[in-house]
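Good morning,

Attaching, inline, the backbone tokens for the sequence recovery test we're adding to the shared suite. The designed sequence is right after.
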């Protein structure tokens, strides 16, 4: 809940029913878009309470309705955030704004987060340097520092784990399994006007063929000619072809070609097995 928290004793807080709690810390709550400072951590208090009087003292207007409430900045009349009423309590959840249907809008005090996004999520040290040297027009000279974390920056720094290395070869001979993929269009065309490339990899030998194409519509013709040529040269049959692009609707002819080729090879293998009594 707390973005920052400093543990220190600060007296007692009284509640209804002549009950009281001891203040054991002070900190900041909120998220990357908005924060509330000088929030007390009270020992034994099971609910998070916001003081309406402190909102009003710090330059905000709080408007309550039958089903929701709105906090408005007095200076520019911008909506800081909204919350909704649940039974007899007006609630807000900073950690799950989507589920609570809370709308967060940046206030004047959060200009640093606006510039953090405008500068493509640059770090605070770099933004402070740009502001100090006045290298960006319109960049305000404010304190570019925050203990809060940017959600987009956190997701962008997540590293996907690599696939496990295979210790064995899953195929027993060349052309048993081919991997194909198509890339393009590239910005610069070749001398013959090709902007696409069909990459074919043999799973057993790791041999790679690259066929350059003018259009992705030529994939079927190029690959079918390649299959005829390579099977004649190696005197072996292609058993399987694996590719994500085959599932593309634009590759329907290629998909049928690969499917018919695998069906014919499976029927041939079944015929050989029956003749050998396997």
């Amino acid at each position: 809940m707390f973005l920052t928290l400093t543990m220190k004793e600060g007296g007692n807080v009284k509640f209804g029913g002549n009950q009281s709690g001891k203040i054991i810390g002070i900190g900041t709550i909120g998220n990357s878009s908005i924060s509330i400072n000088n929030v007390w951590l009270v020992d034994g208090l099971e609910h998070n309470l916001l003081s309406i009087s402190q909102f009003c003292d710090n330059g905000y207007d709080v408007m309550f309705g039958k089903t929701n409430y709105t906090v408005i900045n007095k200076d520019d009349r911008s909506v800081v955030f909204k919350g909704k009423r649940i039974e007899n309590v007006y609630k807000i959840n900073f950690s799950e704004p989507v589920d609570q249907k809370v709308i967060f809008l940046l206030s004047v005090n959060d200009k640093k987060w606006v510039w953090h996004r405008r500068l493509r999520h640059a770090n605070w040290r770099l933004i402070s340097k740009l502001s100090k040297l006045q290298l960006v027009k319109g960049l305000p000279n404010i304190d570019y520092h925050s203990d809060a974390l940017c959600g987009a920056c956190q997701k962008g720094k997540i590293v996907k784990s690599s696939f496990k290395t295979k210790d064995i070869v899953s195929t027993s001979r060349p052309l048993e399994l081919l991997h194909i993929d198509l890339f393009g269009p590239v910005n610069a065309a070749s001398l013959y006007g090709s902007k696409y490339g069909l990459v074919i990899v043999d799973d057993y030998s790791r041999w790679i063929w690259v066929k350059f194409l003018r259009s992705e519509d030529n994939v079927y013709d190029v690959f079918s000619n390649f299959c005829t040529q390579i099977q004649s040269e190696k005197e072996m049959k292609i058993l399987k072809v694996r590719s994500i692009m085959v599932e593309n609707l634009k590759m329907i002819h290629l998909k049928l070609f690969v499917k018919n080729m695998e069906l014919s090879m499976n029927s041939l293998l079944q015929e050989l097995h029956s003749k050998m009594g396997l």
